[in-house]
Amino acid sequence: MKTLGEFIVEKQLDFPDASGSLSALLGAIRLAAKVVNREINKAGLVDIIGSAGGENVQGEDQQKLDVYANEKFKAAMEARGEVCGVASEEEEEFIAFQGTKSKNGKYIMLMDPLDGSSNIDVNVSVGTIFSIYKRISPIGSEVTLEDFLQPGYKQIAAGYVIYGSSTMLVYTTGNGVHGFTLDPSIGVFCLSHQDLKMPTQGKIYSINEGNYIKFPLGVKRYLKYCQEQVPEENRPYTSRYIGSLVSDFHRNLLKGGIYMYPTTASAPEGKLRLLYECNPIAFLAEQAGGKASDGERRIMDIEPTELHQRSPYFVGSTEMVEKVEQFLSECD
Ligand code: AHG
Ligand code: MN
Ligand code: MN
Ligand code: MN
Hints:
Low-confidence stretches: none
Bound molecules: 2,5-anhydro-1,6-di-O-phosphono-D-glucitol, manganese (II) ion
Strand content: 15-25%
Mean pLDDT: 96
Keywords: Carbohydrate metabolism, Cytoplasm, Hydrolase, Magnesium, Metal-binding
Pathway: Carbohydrate biosynthesis; Calvin cycle
EC number: 3.1.3.11
Strand order of the largest sheet: 4-3-5-6-7-8-9-10
Order of helices and strands: HHEEHEEHEEHEEEEEHEHEHEEH
Number of helices: 9
Number of strands: 15
Structural class: alpha+beta
Protein name: Fructose-1,6-bisphosphatase class 1
Shape: globular
Main location: cytoplasm
């Protein structure tokens, strides 16, 4: 049995010049994940489900657990002092940590503290997504917006926690994707999925088909392609949609498949947020041999201009993402 803590230390030894700062940062994420997991497990027993009464910058109704997870991850990052600032789905502006240790931190973090909020009340898997970059501003100074507006290919690390039938932490630092399952009896994440690789072709497609009428023509045609009877190509594919990006991606990562959130008339830029949803999941997908696209461009090549910027999103098995890109290009 290897624990996440041991695994991180082992990886750090491969880089003799490493300061241990990234390891400490990942340790803080691991701690916050356990705290949030404990709370989510109690949903239904204590008063932590339902709306918190406020709205976030995206105009979404904030859930109590959105707020709770946001506070816990923020606090863990600030206490550890390895990041100089954090940006979150639940905060309009980025947060600049003021402590001396934090100001000397080399990294910044962007996060979706609780992904799949609409699933909390019904006991379906939710997640936390994180994305780590090296800061651009000088060490010792206060973090700036520019530190957060970096393209995805510059990510140092990214990952998610899935609070599901078991709780897992899945992350990459650019050397493959590794998954750890929480053993609740000892409160330790144990290595369970080393060097995950995504099948290049799967047979699951995940999309909110309720928005069908508003999809671009290329997506409509791709969906018909997924549903056609072509047994030698394993079609029709299977439709699976949980409504939480982390859970839908996690399933497709293990089994092969594609997750899509295209533009719609009511969401002309798409719904998902580039910096703390699309990019970190794209980094994981690519590290697992998959692909992430906005329909024509590589997600991680997009130069961000805003903290809460949205993007259409197609992520998963490479051949499936390329197929939907082909349909979209033919319908331009
Ligand atoms: P969040 O709960 O962090 O706001 O994210 C919700 C996102 C994503 O997780 C999910 O896949 C998608 O929104 C679902 O949207 P629809 O309900 O429109 O399908
Ligand atoms: Mn939300
Ligand atoms: Mn989300
Ligand atoms: Mn969220």
